[in-house]
Amino acid sequence: MQSVDIADRVQIVPLGYEKPRVLDPINELKADKVVLIRHTSDEDYEADFQRELVTELETNDRIELEQREADIFSLQSSVRSIKEAILACEEGDEVFVNLSTGSKLTAIAGMIACQSTGAIPIYAKPEHRDDDGELKPPDEPLTKSVGEISKIPRVPLQLPTTDQQRVLAYIADQEYATKKALIEFSEAEELSFISESKSKSDEGKYLLLKTNIIDPLTEDGYIEVEKQGRENHVRITDDGRNIVDIAPLSQSSSD
């Protein structure tokens, strides 16, 4: 008899200063696998109860535990780590991302990653109770001080086209790219803006690149073009790198 692969229920959980909001969704939604994202830092921010929680998950025979790292106070790092965890899941897995744990930035990052991959965001509402189990507000503020205050990059509602995303991802891996290299990449990858065109001349290909890729990405602030001698060097901007992190390469809302 041929074996049948059974899809897993996967929960991706950034580890913050929470315990019930980590464990209860894992148990109630019967996760088969948990991807725990722990904070990476030069300083040790983990409390004893957090390490005990990790040990509790490690010794749980019912679940498979995978641990990853991210700077949970960096949107880019959190998006990248959560998105990579989602994409590493097997096809057919039911993937949940817990937005109620970690930091506020991992919550934003988790929603961005879910929107760009199709994973399911979940939220566990906090409850504050007294010793008798009655609901009541906390006696003191949950946070007594703040650290660095930073700006959060805005995420566009309309993402670049699939062709533009793939070109951005290519440029992100280089110090810079020439327009000739971008055309060669686009032809090798059979990007639609060039493969579906009847124009076969070099002049026509450069015009297609300018119209479909260079001009719109420059206008949106995702790339910069610098004249270097006879060449134009195309470089990705910080906003462009953000798009590479958050956008799905399989589809685009702009297509």
Structure report:
It is a single chain. By secondary structure, the chain is of the alpha/beta class. The chain folds into 2 domains: 9-122, Rossmann fold (3-Layer(aba) Sandwich), CATH 3.40.50; 162-246, Arc Repressor Mutant, subunit A. 39% of the residues lie in helices and 16% in strands. The protein has 9 helices and 8 strands. The chain has helices spanning 20-28, 48-58, 75-87, 104-117, 162-172, 179-188, 192-195, 202-219, 238-246; strands spanning 9-14, 33-39, 64-70, 94-98, 120-122, 177-178, 223-228, 231-236. The strands form 2 sheets. Strands 3-2-1-4-5 form a 5-stranded parallel beta sheet, sandwiched between helices. Strands 6-8-7 form a 3-stranded antiparallel beta sheet. A hairpin with a 2-residue loop joins β7 and β8 (231-236). α3 packs across α4 and α5 (162-172) packs across α9 (238-246). The longest helix is centred in the last third of the chain and has 18 residues, at 202-219. The chain starts with 8 loop residues before the first strand and ends in a 9-residue tail after the last helix. Residues 249-255 have low confidence and may be disordered.
